[in-house]
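Researcher: Next entry: Chondroadherin-like protein (Cardinalis cardinalis).
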Amino acid sequence: GLLLLAAALGATAAARCPAPCVCDNLRAHVLCLNGSLTAIPDTIPELTRKLDLRGNSFMVIPAGAFLATPYLTHLDLQHCKVEKLEEGAFRGLGRLVYLNLASNGIALLYQESLDGLFSLQQLILEGNRIEEIQPGAFGHLASLTVLDLRANALVYLPDMIFQGLQVLRWLRLSHNALHVLGTEAFAALPALRRLSLDHNELQALPGEALARLDGATRLDLGHNPITYVAEEALAMASLRHLFLDHASLQDVAPDAFARSPQLRILDLRENQLQGLPPLAGAGGLVRVSLDGNPLLCSCLLRPFHKWLARARVQAEGACAAPPALRGRSLNSLKPPEMRCSRLWPPPSPTTPPEQPSSAGSRQCPRGCVCSPDFHHGSCENRDLREIPRDFPEDTRLLDLRRNPFRTVPPDAFPGLKELVSLHLQRCSIRELQPGALRGLDSLVYLYLTNNHLSTLAAAAFEGAPQLAYLDLDHNAFTHVPVGTFRLLPNLISLHLQHNTIRELVGGDLAGARGLRWLYLAGNAIRRIAPAALAPTKMLEKLQLEGNHLSEVPTAALRGLPALSELKLSRNPIKHMGDGVFLPVASSLQHLYLDNMGLEWISPHAFTGLGPKIRSLYLESNKMSNIPDMSNFTGLEILNLQDVPFHCDCQLLPLHRWINKLNICVGATCGSPAEAQGLKVKLSTTFQTCPGWGQGEAGETNANKTKAASKPSKKKRLGKSPAKGFSKSRA
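Model: Predicted structure:
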């Protein structure tokens, strides 16, 4: 009876398996990989437990998108071009324990975006463009143990931002641009054991914020521009492993770690240390790593050397000077060898005096709401004609959206020296007057989207030197506001999407030396001058999709040694010549060339590109062949859907290469007639080609043998269906 019931359930599930998905009825798994889905299928079997939707194009996850599948425990939405999670998007998924949203375009986490996920244990948000997290965004995730926010665009963490994560054990914040942390940013994380803050922009050890982490045992702070660790800078009672490698350290105070008594491993590799003092108070240290530092083994290093022996601490590192000791390991030195024949002036860094914090005695303006716990103020949608004043002086986030201000006058925000985030979206603003932001010494985020700005005076940004994120999407700019960025030395991210900019010329971005992300999608750009991007030598992401470019702006890409992502989707580029990506070939990892109407790509168009390329999007174009990509050995995503390949003998190399790949590419034949609609990988038209039997038969037999002995392993978007999968027919 049970067998009959199981068979009946399996038959029902198979009947409902949506195209073009694959359903494993025995395991209750559904895979819809690397397809052309633009909405969550509503015919997924109700009893599905694991749903894999990687590589589709959803853009928005609407409220209640998964109400039909309440038994889900695992949901994978990687590489789905998701830009927005609507409030209530995951309601009904009370059993979900794993959610992967990596490699999408999410910019903001709303308060209710993750509502209903009270069983969730792992949340992966790596590789999005999250700039800001609203208070309470994680408040419903009481079971979460791992939160991965790596490789986003975070600059600032406000107080109590992780409130509600009572059992979180690992918080991953690597590869952001963090340089401002609220003193209570980590206050609500009692179970945290590991914190990853490496590869950020922290210029000083955030000791006050870290002191809230009583139970953390590992702290990663490497690859931050920290120059000095001050007295008692780190007070973490349980810390055992501290990584400060590849920073800019020039000195460490003797009692820097005196309030971290459990510290065992201290990694200081690849810094600028010429020596260290005896580390008083760090009595539990077992190993100090100093490899890659310019250690000067003079008599001034003797106290540290003596302390190492007395405390029985293992030291890793070698002398850089004097010449007689160069290359000698610290452990091999004897005190008489460390002479003072050369002068070593010990550094005498001075720590900046602490500024007294002001709690602010001013009351909240009439009609507005102020939250003393979060230091937030809001006057959203109050039909205000003038910007209100007298917010508490410790306000850090100010939300003034949807008020018809029309203009922002000089000194509009007096006394708000601690303000970090300012929201002025949909305020009918036509002008930012000179001095409008004066006094906003700590401002990091400025949102001016959906206004009527057509020009900006550089003087408007006077007095806001920390501004890192400037969002000017959906305004009326016809050109990049020249000279605006000279007063913004810390600008990292610039949004100018969905304006009517027609071209980029030399000087447009003058002063934007630290710019990393430039968003210009949805404009009318026809030309980019060769010198237009020259000031932005640190640029990592350039998004130009949905413009009017008729060719790849090769000349403008010269001098961008860090560019890793280039989006040219939805530009009318019909032909692609030789070596068009050569200027960025050594750094480029993600290339978007989809939906362009491409008719021809030169065999040498991808010259210089190779193993670094991780994703390549070529879907929805018109070419019938593509260049040799056999050296693209690092590919994780290759999308070739809706390309009318002509499956004749000239395409045989592509057929062979696709057969060797461990990813799904979606390539189908557009011609000849007998192959139309067939997968390039499976088409039989190649069997009549000269040399067909030389490689394919042996390779096919080998693959069959390998498949019979063990299941195939596929990268990310290419997991092959396990035994028991039934493929639906469109």
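Model: Note for the record: The two ends are 33 Å apart (CA to CA).
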